[in-house]
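Q: what sequence does this backbone want?
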């Protein structure tokens, strides 16, 4: 029997963090949500001995280590290279989208400005990655 794996939210904006957590709670998912408020904390969590998260919701513009570098390091490790990573960001810049997918992002979602749309988008992300998508088995 395997434990429920957490969702890792990597977000430095307190308002976006609060909205995302509220939307994930609204989805009634059993998965706990672990928050990292900068890229360095995200990497420490991903590469810790703790079980891998089921999905990483990763912002691009982060203090200490940016989201693209976090993604690059996740994809460089055999243990984490299959870990689903969703870029959840306010950037709609083509170069950010292209670079994210080039580095192996599983999805790129621009944060809607409208609070209701933002909540619905995060709710759908949580449901998809936790309940619908077939995730790779965890690696030792």
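A:
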């Amino acid at each position: 029997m395997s434990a429920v794996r957490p969702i890792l939210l990597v977000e430095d904006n307190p308002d976006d963090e609060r909205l995302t957590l509220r939307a994930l709670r609204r989805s009634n998912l059993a998965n706990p949500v672990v928050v990292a408020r900068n890229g360095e904390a995200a990497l420490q969590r991903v590469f810790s001995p703790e079980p891998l998260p089921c999905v990483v919701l990763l912002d691009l513009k982060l203090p200490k280590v940016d989201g693209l570098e976090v993604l690059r390091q996740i994809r460089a490790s055999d243990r984490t290279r299959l870990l689903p990573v969703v870029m959840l960001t306010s950037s709609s810049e083509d170069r950010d989208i292209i670079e994210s997918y080039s580095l192996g992002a599983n999805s790129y979602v621009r944060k809607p400005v409208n609070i209701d749309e933002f909540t619905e988008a995060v709710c759908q992300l949580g449901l998809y990655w936790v309940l619908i998508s077939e995730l790779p088995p965890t690696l030792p």
